[in-house]
Amino acid sequence: MRRIFLFFGVFLLAFTDLRAQATLLMGEKAITLEENFSLSFVFKSANASVETPAYKFPELPGLRKLGVSRSKATDIQNGEPVYSFTFSQYYQASTTGTFLIPSAEIIVNQQSLKMDGFALQVSASEQKEEVIEENKAEIEELFKGQNSVFLALTSTQTQPFVGQGFTLKFSLFIPDDNSTRYSFDRNDIQIPALIQKLRPKNCWEESFGLQEVKVSKVVYKNKKYTEYRFFQSTYFALDAKKITIPSLSLQLLKNTEKIVFSSKPLIISPKELPNHPLKGKVPVGDFRLVESLTRTQVQTGDSVVYVSSVIGDGNSILWEAKLVESDYFLNFSPLGTQSSVYPYGDKMLGNKMEKILIIPSQPGKFALKSYFNWIYFNTRTAAYDTLKSEAVLTVSGQPSDRLLNTLSETMPLYRELEKLASDKVIGYRWVDWKGIVNVLVGLILVWLVFLMTKAKR
Questions:
Q1: Smallest Cα–Cα separation from 55: which of 29, 91, 18?
Q2: Domain map of the chain by residue range?
Q3: How far apart are the first and last CA of the chain?
Q4: pLDDT tens per residue across span 147-196
Q5: Rounded to whole angstroms, how far apart are CA atoms 289 and 350?
Q6: How confident is the model at residue 214 (pLDDT cuts 50, 70, 90)?
Q7: What is the rounded distance in angstroms from the CA atom of residue 122 to the CA atom of residue 98?
Q8: CATH level 3 topology of 1-123
Q9: What are residue 172's DSSP bridge partners?
Q10: How far apart are CA 392 and CA 261, in angstroms?
């Protein structure tokens, strides 16, 4: 397979298939205590969905493993989609200082990815306490009536719209002041069986890719807990059928005694979307548009590249590529698209990026909102909404068609046309008015000749 270079984040990757070209990535080597160091491997596939590879990340001295996340990106190369998958292991430092990390390796499907030794700088930073308002109710519900060890299956949404993402998390919480010592009992058998029970039907899944227990600290009302997270995935309901997840039971060892903890059953009730001609055909979520033009002022015949990124917590696979029709004023040519899905906090975010080449044919000022817009169902407002471009392209110079000069003082008709809103300009095409007038004059002359001949008779 031809070797393709893909820029992902701040790294340059080179890979074509998992066996031959899984690629190692390293995170920043200077972090703060609040930040995590990451090791990642990436591979590329022609298939949109691939089997999760067998892998093993190394233990690093002075650092604690937190968990593994997975992201997926799509790039269009020569008109064909190419899918890349990234698996990232996060590490946390407990103290500040310089950590000497020896050479190590990541094993991916029996392939060894070598890592050279390096020094990791960990510095202190101002501790900031951040409270996310939208999660307060969820946290209150999670810890309500809990004073000791408990098992919890939670969802970020219990009444999502059809197509809106909701994230399921399955965790064990142990208070730090707990005096009883617990240990896991055959999690390699228990956890996969429990995950099969909790996975909802009739849903599109985007997995966070946890293959190892993610350990983190949680503080609730000044009481500290250690969370052991076994599973986390975001789901998008395909219909409005109720989703019922039964109570799940996990067996632990209390010294040598077996003890069982159970979660509460969970019910997800998706809501139907309002009726609309595009119902079920557009993404559902909370999105924003990030856009740029390589230049905002150009001459006719020059080229400019427009880049749009639609980012949000909805399922970005439903965004269709923008097939913008060229008109008399602007010519459009797609350069490529790329879509990626990646975890961010408790959400799975999507990013659909497109690059389009624009070559203006006529001078004037063009608002690109008439050419570029994205319709979606806004979960914040519970209504269909549209993201519109705010970019404006100013074009000067001579028109490519010398018969029409939109800047000429002798052409007031087209000066007025430039002042129209751009959504009205799109529908205009050049018409040879001079030719039409000549034909009409000719017809009138023929008719007059006919009348004069008839009168003489």
A1: 18
A2: 1-123, 136-272, 285-435
A3: 86
A4: 789 999 999 999 999 999 999 999 999 998 888 888 999 888 999 999 99
A5: 12
A6: confident
A7: 6
A8: Immunoglobulin-like (2.60.40)
A9: 151, 228
A10: 60
Q: How far apart are CA 57 and CA 72, in angstroms?
A: 19
Give the residue with greater pLDDT, 10 vs 275. 275
For the ranges 52-56, 136-140, 213-217, 237-241, the one whose mean pLDDT is highest = 237-241
Mean pLDDT over 288-307 rounds to 94
Sheet holding 257-262, edge to edge: 182-184, 249-254, 257-262
Please say whether the beta carbons of 210 and 231 come within 8 A.
Answer: yes
DSSP class per residue in 348-393: EEEEEEEEEEEEE-S-EEEEGGGT-EEEEEETTTTEEEEEE---EE
Collapse the DSSP code of 69 into the 3-class scheme (helix H, G, I; strand E, B; otherwise coil) and give the result: strand
Reported as a pLDDT band with limits 50, 70 and 90, residue 341 is: confident
Q: Provide the percentage of residues in the chain whose pLDDT is more than 90.
A: 42
pLDDT at 86: 83
Specify the CATH number of the domain 136-272.
Answer: 2.60.40
Which has the minimum average pLDDT: 107-121, 309-323, 364-378?
Answer: 309-323
For residue 289 the two structure tokens come to 């548009």
Same CATH topology for 1-123 and 136-272? yes
For the chain, state the CA radius of gyration.
Answer: 30
Tokens 């705010």, residue? Answer: 390
Residues 428 and 406 sit within 8 Å (Cβ to Cβ): no
Q: 6: part of which helix (H) or strand (E)? A: strand 5-8
Hey, what amino acid is at 144?
K
| CA separation for the pair 360, 392 (Å, rounded) | 13
Nearest to 30 by CA among 126, 122, 124: 122
Section 378-394 average pLDDT:
95
Average pLDDT, whole number, for the chain? 80
Give the phi and the psi of residue 58 in degrees, each rounded to 5: -80, 160
| Backbone phi, psi, residue 317, to 5° | -65, -20
- The CA-based diameter of the chain, rounded to the nearest angstrom, is 126
Cα separation, 247 vs 97, in Å, equals 45
- What distance in Å separates the CA atoms of residue 164 and residue 262, rounded to the nearest whole number? 28
Place of tokens 């690109």: 368
Residue type for position 395:
V
Helix, strand, coil percent content, the chain, rounded in steps of 5: 15, 45, 40
pLDDT recorded at residue 410: 38
User: Smallest Cα–Cα separation from 184: which of 251, 126, 244, 243?
Assistant: 251
Mean pLDDT across the stretch 197-216?
85
